[in-house]
């Protein structure tokens, strides 16, 4: 096993396969029903319903709920581990976000906090607002990562890299541009939510993270 090679290949191949499958599903749907008659909230199940296949509609709706549930679980599992890494870097309180369960070896306090926070937002905010906020936040993260590749290549070319981005600067520049294009296609109200979310992050950083940052202490 060579994670430095296998993980990037697996990610790229998975994205390509998913892209092809999404295009194939859209081609099938528009062949079944005119595009202006599709329900954007549940296009697949609605298309089968309009063709008189009620059994397929229920099956697809059930599979959709199961798929969303699995994605939510993955996101809720990954979030606490991101906070764990940030806590180890000194950007968040270690007593809460860096505490690992002695038996299960998981960030249990952070997991409970994230679960409570996500459940509260899901219970009181419109689902469209949450979806747009998740989308713009993910795209912003991609923009930052792509920009970081350019900055690291310029300022720290000697840094150890388990995986090197190919075709620099073309790939990171295109990544920034395409993600920004998708971000600007989202509603204006979502940008205000993003600004508020970033403001909260800056408050946490300047109030706690900057002073306790491990990297900052090493460079002093």
If you had to describe this structure to a student in words, what would you say it looks like?
With 220 residues, this protein is mainly alpha-helical. It is built from nine helices and no strands. It has helices spanning 3-32, 43-50, 54-88, 94-97, 108-124, 127-155, 170-184, 188-212, 214-219. Helix 2 packs antiparallel against helix 3 (54-88) and helix 3 (54-88) packs across helix 5 (108-124). The longest helix has 35 residues, at 54-88. The model has no long low-confidence stretch (mean pLDDT 86).
Put the structure in a nutshell:
This protein has 220 residues and is an all-alpha fold. The protein is 77% helix and 0% strand.
Query: Helix/strand/pairing class, anyone?
Result: mainly alpha
Order of helices and strands: HHHHHHHHH
State the total count of DSSP E strands: 0
Sheet-strand content, in percent, reads under 5%
Q: Counting H and I runs of at least 4 residues, what is the number of helices?
A: 9
The residue fraction in helices comes out at over 70%
* Largest sheet entry: none
- On the 0 to 100 scale, the average pLDDT is 86
Low-pLDDT segments, ≥5 res:
none
Defining traits:
220 residues, mainly alpha, 77% helix, globular
């Amino acid at each position: 096993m060579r994670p430095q090679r296998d993980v990037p290949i697996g990610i790229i191949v998975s994205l390509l396969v998913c892209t092809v499958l999404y295009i194939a599903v859209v081609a099938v749907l528009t062949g079944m029903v005119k595009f202006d008659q599709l329900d954007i909230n549940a296009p697949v199940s609605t298309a089968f319903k309009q063709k008189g296949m009620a059994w397929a509609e229920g099956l697809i709706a059930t599979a959709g709920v199961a798929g969303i549930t699995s994605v939510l679980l993955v996101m809720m599992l990954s979030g606490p581990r991101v906070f764990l890494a940030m806590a180890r870097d000194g950007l968040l309180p270690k007593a809460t976000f860096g505490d690992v369960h002695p038996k299960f070896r998981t960030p249990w306090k952070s997991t409970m906090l994230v679960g409570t926070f996500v459940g509260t937002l899901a219970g009181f905010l419109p689902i469209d607002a949450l979806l747009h906020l998740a989308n713009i936040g993910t795209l912003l993260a991609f923009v930052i990562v792509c920009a970081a590749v350019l900055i690291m290549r310029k300022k720290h070319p000697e840094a150890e890299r388990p995986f090197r981005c190919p075709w620099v600067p073309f790939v990171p520049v295109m990544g920034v541009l395409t993600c920004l294009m998708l971000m600007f296609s989202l509603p204006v109200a979502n940008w205000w939510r993003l600004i508020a979310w970033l403001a909260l992050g800056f408050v946490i950083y300047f109030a706690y993270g900057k002073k306790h940052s491990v990297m900052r202490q090493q460079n002093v």
